Amino acid sequence: MRIDVITLFPEFFTSPLQTSLLGKAIANQIATVHLTNPRDFTTDKHHRVDDEPYGGGVGMLMKPEPIFAAVESLPSLPKREIIYLTPQGQPMQQNLFKELVNYDQLVLICGSYEGIDERVCDHLVTREVSLGDFVLTCGEIPALALINGVVRLRPGTVAKQDSLKFESFEDGLLDYPQYTRPPVFRGWEVPEVLRSGNHQLIADWRKQQQLLRTQQRRPDLL
């Protein structure tokens, strides 16, 4: 899988893309991430990537020319999605990651300032994705979240593939509570059923806990 990030701040990605499982996956070529700065495609002497919005308003908009030129400079693989990270997009959810992991190429456009010229969305972008119902200073943060969520599903990123089957949202429910040693910490005990060795009882308890936790915290999922 090839991931291209269109960003004014490529240095934003330096540490996250070299850290933990994501860093190992990229080092092992499970996915490749390429950073492209639209400022490199400006044609004026000041290398401007933003301008005032028509009709007035607060702030500046990213101009369409550098973004189009940056994306058009990239190789185009057969199954490609061009994604704009914006609060107006579809929510970033596990099912989205499971869909995108099957693509050959993801092109992620990170907005800055007050956003981007709408012509980019109308004539270049194929999908808009949101990290949540809030506004951030830039699109780099949701881009990193999307990269992490997709790459961790690629075979070889997570050593034990079964661990991907038993986690929040995989069956429409939140994850069950989990415990490790010691069995008693400051007087708080690990539930006895988890120490019983009875796999059926443990499985039943976990399912009950999933239902209870989802009902309490995310009833919209039920």
From TrEMBL:
Q: Show the GO MF annotations.
A: tRNA (guanine(37)-N1)-methyltransferase activity
**Source organism, top-level taxon:** Bacteria
Which residues does UniProt assign to the signal peptide? none
| Principal EC category | transferase
Where mainly found?
A: cytoplasm
Q: Which HAMAP family match?
A: TrmD
Q: Per its record, how is this protein called by name?
A: tRNA (guanine-N(1)-)-methyltransferase
**What is the originating organism of this protein?**
Pseudanabaena cinerea FACHB-1277
Q: In the UniProt record, what gene is named as encoding this protein?
A: trmD
